[in-house]
Design a protein that fits this description.
Blueprint lengths: L4 E6 L5 H17 L3 E4 L6 H9 L2 E4 L10 E4 L6 H9 L3 E4 L3 H15 L3 E5 L5 H7 L6 E4 L16 E5 L5 H14 L13 H13 L5 E5 L5 H12 L4 E4 L7 H4 L4 E6 L5 H13 L4 E6 L11 H6 L7
Parallel strand pairs: 1-11, 1-12, 2-3, 2-4, 4-5, 6-7, 6-8, 9-10, 9-11
Helix pairs in contact: 4-5, 7-8
The chain binds iron/sulfur cluster.
Length: 318
């Protein structure tokens, strides 16, 4: 009987923005010592957040929960100007872990708003990143999540409309929404380069590459991770059964019945050790042939904020 195999996708897991954000929390704990407050989940992965909490990070929902003068880290998803102002008013010492690719979208929103454009932000309601970006020009920005919603949009000057997108969307769905926007607003302008980030794009591309040769795709990631959920959608849109799993314990044995080739990938906030646990589990179920499929080499690194870059190799000063 032919052996059962695992196709392990690459790139998978941590992106440069997530590595930077986690490094920021760890280095801040090391350099300054607790308490270090983190507004919202630093990245959308429950085991990562639990691990940092064990090391001393205190996760809060609002800057109001931080004592005046305290040290707070803003998450990789970014914050609105209002949150920055609230932190300043409380005299908090802020370390910004916003991913530079999210900051890029914020700057585009500011630029379009200054130029007098009405802005359409394509993204998911209530996602932390979207809440932050909307806050850059709240009076001028409308959120759109689906192609169907485009029909209901109207603006005082339809010839002066711009669009931006969340960084972790489905490339295919976003393309459809942008096409619908171009039909409704022929003069619409967009960002110079797409806002969907390299990590989101590369992980989706890897899924598409193996979709026709897998019987099942397992995506390691948390339920609130946007880019992880999109990987499941991309696979299902290709007709491939796919499930989002926090870890190997979430795998249902019924999913494996009849599967000879299982693809494994991970969202941009999922740590590699969770992927390895999934591989161990699958091996124990007879998937003894492992092949890594690399679709594109990733070599992206983002610099730390200056105050930590300078301190990361320095003596700890409390
Ligand atoms: S998924 Fe993309 S935008 Fe989000 S943190 Fe990673 S690199 Fe930055």
């Amino acid at each position: 009987m032919a052996s059962k195999r695992i196709l392990l996708l690459k790139p998978r897991g941590f992106c440069a923005g997530v590595v930077r954000a986690i490094d920021i929390v760890n280095i801040a704990l090391e350099c300054y010592g607790p308490p270090i407050y983190v507004r919202k989940e630093i990245v959308h992965n429950s085991p990562v957040v639990a691990d940092l909490a064990r090391r001393g990070a205190i996760f809060v929902d609002s800057v109001d929960e931080v004592p005046p003068g305290g040290r707070i880290i803003f998450s990789a998803h970014g914050v609105s100007p209002e949150v920055r102002q609230q932190a300043t008013a409380r005299k908090l010492r802020v370390i910004d872990a916003t991913c530079p690719l999210v900051t890029k979208v914020h700057l585009e929103a500011v630029r379009f708003a200054r130029l007098g454009y009405s802005i359409i932000l394509i993204g998911h309601k209530d996602h932390d990143e979207v809440i932050g970006t909307l806050g850059e020009a709240p009076g001028q920005t409308r959120l759109v999540s689906t192609e169907e919603e485009v029909a209901g949009l109207s603006f005082p000057d339809p010839s002066r409309v711009a669009y931006l997108t969340q960084t972790t969307l489905s490339l295919d769905e976003t393309r459809g929404i942008i096409a619908a926007l171009r039909v409704k607003f022929p003069n619409i302008v967009g960002p110079p380069a797409q806002d969907i980030c390299y990590a989101t794009e590369n992980r989706q591309l890897a899924v598409k590459t193996v979709a026709s040769i897998c019987d099942l795709l397992l995506v390691v990631g948390s339920a609130n991770s946007s880019n992880s959920n999109r990987l499941v959608e991309v696979a299902r849109n290709k007709g491939l059964p796919s499930y989002l799993i926090e870890d190997q314990q979430a795998i249902a044995m019924t999913w494996l019945e009849g599967s000879r080739t299982v693809g494994v990938t991970a969202g941009a906030s999922a740590p590699e050790y969770l992927v390895q646990h999934v591989l161990d589990f699958l091996r124990a179920q007879g998937f003894d042939c492992l092949e890594e499929v690399e679709t594109i080499a990733e070599d992206v690194r983002f610099a730390l904020p200056p105050e930590l870059e300078a301190r990361s190799g320095a003596t700890v000063q409390l």
